[in-house]
Amino acid sequence: LRPPALAKVLRIAFSPYERVALARADAVDQRRDGISARAAGPMACEERWGSYQSDSACHATFWIASWPRVEVPAVWLMPLLTQSGVLRTVSVTMEPVSLQRATREAEAARTADLEEEQLRSEHGFVTRARTRRRQEANVRREAELSRGHAELRFAGYVTVTGRDSDDLELACERVEHAAAQAHLELRRMYGQQAAAFTFTLPLGGGLR
Fold first, then answer.
1. Which of 77, 98, 103, 109 is the most exposed place for a label (fewest CB within 10 A)?
2. What are phi and psi of 5, to 5 degrees?
């Protein structure tokens, strides 16, 4: 995006209920390519323990704490992306991991699995299905790296938006239900809502 278009995206993220007014301005002036960078941020904002208010909107940001641990179809995110029926933003930020670091971590995980398996065998313990799946995933990871596949570290966040605190809480309930249907575990980022909100802006934040 060009800077004016990016500024408009940021403005709508802070105050999505101004989208219609901005669209009217674009319709009147066909030469508009967004807004001034000085107008990208909110006029006022307030952070609370579990929410963040900016201009006419109230937001709550969740961290995707757990991704699917079972086989899922290609459309597994449909409940969250298209069926929640509320205003929300889903963001995933990715960063490549160096081959040396990824290989080192994969080999360490495989060594730990082998040592754990040997210990279980010596003491007569049965390997549980969840443990076997983790071990198989580590084998696949090591094999993919040996074939030259890249590894990424990533983090996902969901910002839910409402017109006021009551509207926001109802929207959060619907989004959490939709996320559960998609086999995602969401955790509300209490005490850090202002910073967490920026993780769902198109700025590449959120990796730790």
1. 98
2. -70, -40
Q: Collapse the DSSP code of 186 into the 3-class scheme (helix H, G, I; strand E, B; otherwise coil) and give the result.
A: strand
Q: Angle 121-124-128 (CA atoms, 0-180°, nearest 5)?
A: 75
Report d(CA 29, CA 25) in Å as an integer: 6
Nearest to 59 by CA among 187, 173, 194: 194
d(CA 172, CA 183): 16
Alpha carbon distance 83, 167 (integer Å): 18
Torsion of CA 6, 153, 72, 159, to 10 degrees: -40
CA distance 23 to 8: 10
Question: Could you give the C-alpha distances from 84 to 37, 81, 95, in angstroms and in order?
Answer: 32, 7, 28
Are 55 and 18 in contact, with CB atoms under 8 Å apart?
yes
- pTM, to two decimals: 0.81
Least confident window among 32-36, 107-111, 167-171: 32-36
